[in-house]
Amino acid sequence: xxxxxxxxxxxxxxxxxxxxxxxxxxxxxxxxxxxxxxxxxxxxxxxxxxxxxxxxxxxxxxxxxxxxxxxxxxxxxxxxxxxxxxxxxxxxxxxxxxxxxxxxxxxxxxxxxxxxxxxxxxxxxxxxxxxxxxxxxxxxxxxxxxxxxxxxxxxxxxxxxxxxxxxxxxxxxxxxxxxxxxxxxxxxxxxxxxxxxxxxxxxxxxxxxxxxxxxxxxxxxxxxxxxxxxxxxxxxxxxxxxxxxxxxxxxxxxxxxxxxxxxxxxxxxxxxxxx
Length: 275
Fold this sequence. Notes:
Layout: E1 5-9, H1 17-24, E2 30-35, H2 38-51, H3 53-56, H4 60-80, E3 87-91, H5 99-105, E4 110-115, H6 118-131, H7 150-157, H8 163-175, E5 182-186, H9 187-192, H10 194-205, H11 247-251, H12 253-262, H13 264-270
Parallel strand pairs: 1-3, 1-4, 2-3, 4-5
């Protein structure tokens, strides 16, 4: 069904993307994925299209037309094999980074991007790190200093996947003004004013509003977090309510000040009241 509407949930880690998916999934028109690998399938195809001699040796204009059409049918075919619902929301934080390519096979793509105060994201990561000390963090090498202190860990997360690369992509979107085409959802607003936030999402998606039950959000998306790192925690609370900020207590004032000062563009764009 090539007239299916495909929406991209391309949010920062620990910022409510799984919650958004499960709220939207209450709407019978919507199919909402857990963390998705569809983009990775597309990227693998793009790599072969770029590198294989068989494509290079042919008319480049024809090959480009063929590849873009392939992408269009591939993403639609993937969801046609899963659901007959007319709106599919694919959750992968990298989608908008490939906007100039994506818009070639998904006309006027829609991106929902959940953001959160970076200090709260790091606080969430730090709490998961402490909670899972019985499991190895792949970046915690014996004899290395990169994960020894809270400062080390915060700096590491801000300069590596999944946090660092997602934040960098979002900052690039601000620099190129792609951000004007994204629908930004602040985690703090979603949890405090869910009805208002969801109405704005429906307006952006140009979909009729659905009356959601924010008191009882059933977990529709399921994934085995054992396949993710120790930071893979995709369980949601059934009731949408504000989350208390604890980053000062968890990270300490020094780390919090460093984050706010070093990420001026992020805060100036999304949290000017925090500057």
